[in-house]
Amino acid sequence: MKKLIIPIVIGLTVVACKEEPKKETTALTYPETKKVDTVDTYFETEVKDPYRWLEDDMSDETADWVQRENKTTYGYLDNIPYRDALKERLSTLWNYEKVGAPFKEGDYTYFYKNDGLQNQYVVYRYKTGEDPSTAEVFLDPNTFKDDGTISLDNLSFSEDGKTTAYSISEGGSDWRKVLVMNVEDREIVEDTLIDIKFSGLSWKGNEGFYYSSYDKPKGSELSAKTDQHKLYYHKLGTSQKEDELIFGGTEAEKHRYIGGSVSEDNQYLTISASTSTSGNKLFLKDLTKPDSKLETILDNTDSDTYLLDNDGSKLYLVTNLNAPNKKIVTVDAANPTPENWNDFIPETKNVLSPSKGGGYFFTKYMVDAVSKVSQYDYEGNKIREIELPGVGSAGGFGAKKDEKELYYSFTNYVTPGSIYKFNIEEGTSELYRKPEIDFNPENYESKQVFYTSKDGTKVPMIITHKRGIELNGKNPTILYGYGGFNISLTPSFSITNAVWMEQGGIYAVPNLRGGGEYGKEWHKAGTKMKKQNVFDDFIAAAEYLIENKYTSKDYLAIRGGSNGGLLVGATMTQRPDLMKVALPAVGVLDMLRYHTFTAGAGWAYDYGTAEESKEMFEYLKGYSPLHNVKDGMEYPATMITTGDHDDRVVPAHSFKFAAELQEHQSGSNPVLIRIETDAGHGAGTPVSKTIDQYADIFGFTLYNMGYEVLPEKVNEKIKE
Fold first, then answer.
1. Positions marked active-site
2. Could you give phi then psi for residue 64, rounded to 5 degrees?
3. Neighbours of 102 (CB within 10 A)
4. What are the phi and psi torsion angles at 585 (to 5°)?
5. Which pTM does this prediction carry?
6. Three-class secondary structure of residue 300 per DSSP
């Protein structure tokens, strides 16, 4: 068993700098983790996997290991003297009313609200036209389970608004149950639908709805492979076993992700079918004709294309086919294939993300990751550019066709999300709801810089911190990144980041390649054999922060989740000298086996697989965090976080990586794994668990940067 010397500090009066004050010490002993002789062979190369047994999430042995690791981790965290103070400040700042934009269904107007520290948001409603103050609770997920670990996922209403179907997640799992409820008396009217995964709920009039799922896997439902998605139709008043299979389920052609969506006028069903997280086939069915055939719009997965709206048989499609930044095209439903498409809103140099409402289209563009929005009519005429409240991220701009107003949200790193009401015809905005939170944006600044990556590529990064901060290289800094799956990181306010910045912390977010900030080409530049670009971009961001005296290696932490957990794992194993703390969350860390779990095979567009070719195997092995932990290397202080119910990126990734690091770590930096129980990949996590987790993450980070106490101003706020 390996022992590590850790500091125990006493007191809450001064801030420790890196002059290393005297500390009492005690020994931390890592749990014993057995090794097995598992060996895989890839293209005549043998690869050992000594911790393969930790992949069995159903075994008592794994459960015992989890318990022992958590005991070690929490024993360490208990020694951080300001951990409770962080938790208290997080709870205080979190405790404000959060209200979502209203939306109309049938006779009622609905909205989501959280009073402050409720584990889950509550759905309220009032009769449309009446005073919103008369709103009553419609659906309260906090009543599903006392500890808040059952969350509301999807809420979908029939055309007349008299019936709703809603899905729930238990313990953070991606598997869902769907309940059907009469809106008026809130009575459940059918048996619960079960074993549903990666699914929307799209109603066909008032008759029933479409949903998607896989066959329930044999063995562990949390880790067993699922790669044959199917689209079903559930007719109200019938049992789930009678549900009609609409698409998928043939051995000849497997699709890992299938979704069905009904147009607002109930005329068309569109079906999207994908083999990976990028690219989809697209099909169309005329629901006004009972015997209509399924028409093919696209028979390949070379693009991402979907139906935005229709005007009778005129279809408005959003596509990146031959348009990496996306465009809107029109086509008649009778001949919907690409050779008949006509450009409606052509591609620009910025990435398009459109919506519709009130008989208009709203084109949201990302300009260096910042929102710009314009309004168009159904003939393609630009009506106006929307004046936004500031520089940041706008969301929403969606409503039904007959609405006269819609709502949108606006936020950035220093502005808590506010909701604005928009008059669709006049083009005017008014503030609808602004949160009352104990945070003054005027005390903080957020600016965008551009730095140069290893190969000369210019990469943007937004850096946020208190105004007037001294650039002396000693500011505690979190560098956060993702860099994958065409996902864009745009400016948004976070309570947890606010607490970090209150402590004098810097929060920096680069827009790495692999993301979608600059369209499909930016995404592709960080995939497969170009994945190293993502890590190089992240490393260059860290070097920029250090060179410009925002921070230094002793005060830098890197953080990311899921694909971002891979980013952190790869960066810390390639450049352990660059940071003091590493915080990989729910990470993809075993790049040779990721595709063998749950829906992981669908990520091959971004990653490739070890079986694909010898070249791909060697490339993956060359950066796979699990396979690049070296003996005798001093890695940064590391706290890996995961959830025991994560069936997206199974916790075995984190388990095995922790075991490798604990075995090979040199020096005094701790390597811990914090395993949340009854929690999954992140969505639906109760507020109470989130607060606890961030108190631990920030406490661990500051403690390992040498802080004996929190900065004085935070202490003053807590005392107040």
1. 562, 681
2. -65, -40
3. 21
4. -115, 135
5. 0.91
6. coil
